[in-house]
Design goal:
Keywords: Oxidoreductase. With 260 residues, this protein is of the alpha/beta class. It has nine helices and nine strands. The protein starts with 9 loop residues before the first strand and ends with a strand. Bound molecules: NADP nicotinamide-adenine-dinucleotide phosphate (NAP).
């Protein structure tokens, strides 16, 4: 049966050594598909490549630091020349917060975070679109966060990097849609991975990594433009429009966050 949602044959996943990226890699692994798996940690990369290879996918793996933007761009061109990606999932990310004892976030971490969370994904997304357009289309998936929608005073760098990514997704979608490129922006709430496990205190509406991956794959399959999950955060997005600015600021300033 013909479908206008062709299954991707060649997928680049950044952050494949992480919780969400690793789960997506496993679920996308199958015979006839090439997975280009990128990560920084050599051992984790070896393990996830072995698992995905064991499921029948052809694996190209690369140990890379995405804070080195030029290296990442060159690596993309090299891997794409071999495997002609028809989907990129840009999932690598770093988080950091200002704990109650800090005056500000750590500037050194802010620099890394801006490079990994914003500069690298928008650069790779653009390079991928440029390669996919002459091949008549493809998908660019950007893993952001619900924090994109909130000015979080304890994580100005993280929340604004994700806000930048959300804004990039909207603009790029308009720019590329007539060229056959689908831009899919994923905005998860808390997902149970190493990233969220560093946070102290309660994590409302926490989702397992398995459920997060299923939800993301559904959004990709249906070419959803923006996928906010779990559903409680979609309700909040609507409800918050009714909250006056002064109250919004007061609520945001009252949130206490801490990490290991
Ligand atoms: N977990 C959550 O609650 C949550 C919520 C909303 C959004 N997100 C987003 O979801 C994405 C995946 O996060 P996760 O929860 O799966 O976290 P995770 O388990 O900590 O994974 C993070 C991934 O990013 C990679 N990475 C970090 N810095 C890198 C660098 N300099 N160069 C290359 N790769 C780098 C890590 O590679 P190595 O491990 O090899 O260093 C790892 O693969 C992130 O973009 C995150 O912001 C997560």
């Amino acid at each position: 049966m013909s479908t206008n949602r062709p299954e991707p044959k060649s997928i680049l996943i950044t952050g494949a050594t992480g919780g969400i990226g690793g789960e997506l890699a496993k679920r996308y692994a199958r015979p006839g598909r090439t997975l280009i798996l990128w990560g920084r940690d050599e051992e984790k990369l070896r393990k996830i490549s072995a698992v995905c290879g064991g499921r029948g996918a052809k694996i190209i793996s690369r140990q890379i630091d995405l804070a080195k933007g030029q290296d990442a761009l060159s690596a993309f061109y090299e891997d794409d020349a071999i495997a002609q990606c028809d989907m990129v999932i840009l999932g690598a990310g770093l988080s950091d917060i200002k704990t109650p004892k800090d005056l500000t976030e750590d500037p050194q971490k802010v620099l890394q975070l801006a490079l990994v969370n914003y500069t690298a994904p928008v650069t790779l997304a653009t390079a991928a679109a440029r390669r996919m357009i002459p091949r008549k289309g493809g998908r660019v998936v950007l893993i952001g966060s619900v924090s994109a929608y909130y000015e979080l005073p304890f994580s100005a760098a993280y929340s604004s990097s994700k806000a930048g990514l959300a804004s990039f997704a909207s603009a790029a979608r308009l720019g590329w849609e007539e060229e056959g490129i689908k831009v899919i922006h994923i905005a998860p709430g808390f997902v149970d991975t190493q990233m969220s496990q560093r946070l102290k205190g309660s994590l409302p509406f926490l989702v397992s990594v398995e459920n997060a991956a299923k939800r993301i794959m559904k959004a990709i399959h249906h070419n959803e433009e923006e996928c906010i999950f779990p559903w409680q955060f979609r309700i909040l997005r609507v409800a918050e429009r009714l909250v006056p600015q002064f109250l919004r600021k007061r609520i945001l300033k009252s949130i206490r966050a801490d990490q290991e």
